[in-house]
Specification:
With 180 residues, the chain is α/β, with parallel strands linked by helices. It is 23% helix and 28% strand. The strands form three sheets. A seven-stranded mixed beta sheet has the order 3-2-1-6-9-11-12. A three-stranded mixed beta sheet has the order 8-7-10, with no helix packed on it. Strand 2 and strand 3 form a beta hairpin. The protein is globular, with a radius of gyration of 15 Å.
Amino acid sequence: MTQDDVRKTTEALAARALDLPELAHARSVAAYVAVGSEPGTLALLDALRARGVRVLLPVLLPDNDLDWGVYDGEGSLARVQHGGGRMTLLEPVGERLGPDAVTGADVVLLPGLAVDARGMRLGRGGGSYDRVLARLERAGADPALVVLLYDSEVVERVPEEEHDRPVHAVVTPSGVRRFV
């Protein structure tokens, strides 16, 4: 995709996501900063902040679990290299809230490579968000689980393991598809 295509896709995705009732009423959203070829998320994060939503962003720990920090605008992010420099993420600077901070979120925006017709999400294989989902379940927390993807990443079926859980919705530039 050209840079213009990426920009238009990012804007469309943010607009679709902001129309979700779950996000319209959210006080706290756990999200992420897109990396690589993932659909951009900064426009959405900034729009949520402008609404007064507390936006939590992950901090990757050495064991691939996630800690959380508050997003206070693009200037509150630092480039952090992980895996011996193989992966660079934008992570929030400032106070760490602990891995359990995600349990207070009204909505959790999950990254993914694909979502299938059943709402099953295919991640990158590191298990970070599998831990998040397990933590939510153990805590009895039930936030809306939403994946942000390109239209072509909504597929018929993805591989599934016993611990995998379906998401509630996938948002693409062309629309929203709900599950569960």
